[in-house]
Automatic annotation (TrEMBL):
One of its GO terms (biological process) is L-histidine catabolic process. It catalyses: L-histidine = trans-urocanate + NH4(+). It comes from the Bacteria. The lineage of its organism: Bacteria, Bacillati, Bacillota, Clostridia, Eubacteriales. The gene is hutH. It is found in: Cytoplasm. This is Histidine ammonia-lyase. Its main location: cytoplasm. Contains an active site 4-methylidene-imidazol-5-one (MIO), which is formed autocatalytically by cyclization and dehydration of residues Ala-Ser-Gly. There is a cross-link at residues 143-145 (5-imidazolinone (Ala-Gly)).
Length: 509
């Protein structure tokens, strides 16, 4: 099994996916351990001296004015976790929870937060031994970190709350005991170090970004299948078109579609069937460009955030300084994750428009209405397009930015909050909707190819078509369609289509 060594400096989104979904083992680097120990020694010194330092010898938020004696610091930290466990709603999926734990451990391993080594090692043990805390999705403002959901992450460490172990939900204490992990007692600064950070919103956004990068390539595959079905004009994907505008996403999209369609006998050149295609085909290099460039921008921010200290106060052992500031604030990621959702929604918007061209006899260049023979008796793909339209309309609502909203909290001490966790969760929901829409286009295009008559598919489209046809047959009369939609989406979710296409044509961009 692959091992991911964390040090707070070079974690990648691929590493996060490996730990979250493939259960790669995690280990703290030797250098990180030394930094953690040095930071902790300084916290202990400050507590012993009873210095007035936020969150160490004071209360939290508005209660920062209340001094806490050193003999009460353990109670302070435990009470913090219990009182802040106010999450509501459905639980986060296991992969997201694992990503949350990994990102928090990675941030703490930088050695600026003052948590004990054994506390961080407990987080790592939960990952390696499969204890997954029950963390509700809702309740974070993305401001003083993800306080409520991260408190739920900590509860099982204290023998409290609930967790999953080996697929079963149980008390946090039972899960820790069954996994052979000793519960801990928090000491000064540790409760705050564990929950005052952006790791929930960042975990959700990171996994969504990871998936969206693949979806942007699958959108090019779906486009290529529709091009095959519609006799699409390949000239619009000429690299020289990108050369005179020079957006990277245009180069990438045009390259992908040309590679996927290489060898196709179904596509055309301008003037052979028609002078130019509608925007949903002709302008794909420009339309897909924007989401691809959006993803690259968001990735640049995620790469920074997953290796950042988002705590308060921050401990600087080299000069024995403690600074109370605002690194916990989610604003630097709230806007990118809103942007992420908007970008993904556009991939679905144009996909649905291509699907409409496939099923609409006024637009489909001679294909039968709704891609079925004996129309009237059969409705064919009519309601597939309805469902896609519903999803893209829902995405338009979800794409409204969360980050433009704010509501004061903690007696107005925290008077502008980011709503970054809502932004990330919305982006995730938009992604799931978009994946369904692109799957619908893909399997409708395969139906259209069969009806039109295949003169010879391109290398990449042949690979994609074959994967679809392994699980979805040609539809000659009506059947229960949601089964087919689900099968098509699973091909995208399981990477079967993308892997098959990249095996045929090489890595897509």
């Amino acid at each position: 099994m692959e091992k991911i060594v964390i040090n707070g400096k070079d974690l990648t989104i691929e590493d996060v996916a490996k730990v979250a979904r493939c259960h790669a083992e995690v280990e703290i680097s030797k250098d990180a351990k030394e930094k953690i120990i040095a930071s902790r020694k300084l916290v202990d010194k400050f507590v012993e001296e009873e210095r007035v330092i936020y969150g160490i010898t004071t209360g939290f938020g508005k209660f920062s004015e209340v001094h806490i004696s050193k003999d009460m610091t353990k109670n302070l930290q435990k009470n913090l976790i219990m009182s802040h466990s106010c999450g509501v709603g459905e639980l986060f999926d296991e992969d997201i929870v694992r990503a949350i734990i990994l990102l928090r451990a990675n941030s703490l391993s930088k050695g600026y937060s003052g948590a004990r080594l054994e506390t961080i090692e407990t987080l790592v043990a939960m990952l390696n031994k499969g204890v997954t805390p029950c963390i509700p999705e809702k309740g974070s403002l993305g401001a003083s970190g993800d306080l409520a959901p991260l408190a739920h992450m900590v509860l099982p460490m204290l023998g409290l709350g609930e967790a999953f172990y080996e697929g079963k939900k149980m008390t946090g204490k039972e899960a820790m005991d069954k996994a052979g992990i000793e519960c801990i007692e928090l000491t000064s600064k540790e409760g705050l170090a564990l929950i005052n950070g952006t790791q929930v919103l960042t975990a959700v956004g990171t996994l969504t970004l990871y998936d969206a990068i693949k979806l942007s390539k699958l959108a090019d595959v779906a486009t290529s299948l529709t091009m095959e079905a519609m006799g699409g004009i390949i000239d619009a994907f000429d690299e020289r078109i990108a050369d005179v505008r020079r957006h990277q996403g245009m180069y990438d999209t045009s390259y992908n579609v040309r590679a996927i369609l290489e060898g196709s006998k179904n596509i055309t050149r301008q003037g052979e069937l028609r002078v130019q295609d509608a925007y949903s085909l002709r302008c794909v290099p420009q339309i897909h460009c924007a989401p691809k460039d959006t993803l690259n921008y968001v990735k640049s921010k995620v790469d920074i955030e997953i290796n950042s200290v988002t705590d308060n106060p921050i401990i600087f052992p080299d000069d024995e300084a403690v600074i109370s500031a605002g690194n916990f604030h989610g604003e630097p990621m709230a806007l990118p994750f809103d942007f992420l959702g908007i970008g993904i929604s556009e991939l679905a918007n144009v996909s649905e428009r291509r699907l409409e061209r496939l099923v609409n006899p006024a637009l489909s260049e001679g294909l039968p209405a709704f891609l079925v023979k004996e129309g009237g008796v059969n409705s064919g793909y009519m309601i597939v397009q309805y469902a896609a339209a519903a999803l893209v309309s829902e995405n338009k609502v979800l794409a409204h930015p969360a980050s433009v909203d704010s509501i004061p909290s903690s007696a107005n001490q925290e008077d502008l909050v980011s709503m970054g966790t809502i932004a990330a969760r919305k982006a995730r929901e938009i992604y799931l909707n978009a994946r369904k829409v692109i799957a619908m286009e893909m399997f409708a295009a395969c139906q259209a190819i069969d009806i039109r008559g295949d003169k010879g598919l391109g290398k990449g489209t042949k690979a994609a078509y074959d994967e679809v046809r392994k699980v979805i047959d040609y539809i000659d009369k009506d059947r229960v369609m949601y089964f087919e939609i689900n099968k098509a989406e699973e091909l995208l979710a399981d990477d079967k289509v993308l892997n098959a296409v990249e095996k045929a044509v090489g890595a897509l961009k």
